[in-house]
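Submission checklist for the structure archive. All mandatory fields must be present; incomplete records are returned to the submitter.

[x] Identifier: Oxidoreductase
[x] Organism: Chryseobacterium angstadtii
[x] Residue count: 343
[x] Sequence attached
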Amino acid sequence: MSDKIRFAVVGCGHIGKRHAEMISRNSECELVALIDVKDKSALGIESYNVPFFASLDEFLNSGIEADIINIASPNGFHFEQAHKVVASGKHVVVEKPMTLNKQDAEQLIFQALHKHKQVFAVMQNRYSPPSAWIKEMVESGKLGKIYMVQLNCYWNRDDRYYKPESWHGKKDLDGGTLFTQFSHFIDIMYWLFGDITNIQGKFADFNHKNLTDFEDSGFISFDFVNGGMGSLNYSTSVWNQNLESSMTIIAENGAVKIGGQYMDKVEVCNVKDYEMPELAPTNPGNDYGAYKGSAANHHYIIENVVDVLKGRNTITTNALEGLKVVDIIERIYALKKNDHYEL
């Protein structure tokens, strides 16, 4: 591998441009191409002086060398494009969700193993200081047995986000509220507490009937395989602006609440024989103008890719964890068939 890791980016929307920017800023990386179906002039990518392609196939046939390709296209394209990248003998970074069903995720992992290629799943919330801190609290046993975990995700996503010409809100390309908006938080929960079972759910579509093909709100309860019980309450029906993303943990040796709009603040830490240290500040949320997103941690993902490909570190979010997030969401959504709420 050459000194610089060569990247191409598929999808030049908000997130794809963040990938391109973080690649460009990293001295060990080189951005070799951008790929998008939209016309270059409509994308706002003039600052990147690299070849531009209208399709992934066009790029793969161009002869331009790349070590890794980042997929930041609509969710429904992730599997097909990532599979094509790995089949061509390149590593791949896949934005969340890795795929829209478990079967595709398994097929992608199988292909990557067969080709000896890395699949990096993007779950950037793991890098925020409160996430790293709570991971250590859980793993070290300071909290003792986990009794209850409550995850609340209350965001605003209205017609400023679900535009008619956008892929957001379309069943085949978006997949659903949990896939597009809240998979980061399900990832954090899985990362901390492991898999879930005995899932029950209730869903509603309050104010998105004319905007999306799926529910906007849900109450989900479950047990953790490793012990304890949990709930996920979510909605994109909040008026005008995001309300919160929070995680409350009730455990044997104390209670912790991580809150703020993006789970970026430790709001409560009452733990036996423990004094809360001062954490580094969390990066601000991605600002998309009318609406806000999760903390801007994409530079950590690019750094991790470089470290892994240069043999300096292990992968932060491996493909198996990406698969488990898809699997958990798929099992939650399977309950819709049995609920009074119908799509």
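[x] Structure attached
Curator remark: The mean pLDDT is 93. Residues 85 and 144 are 43 Å apart (CA to CA).
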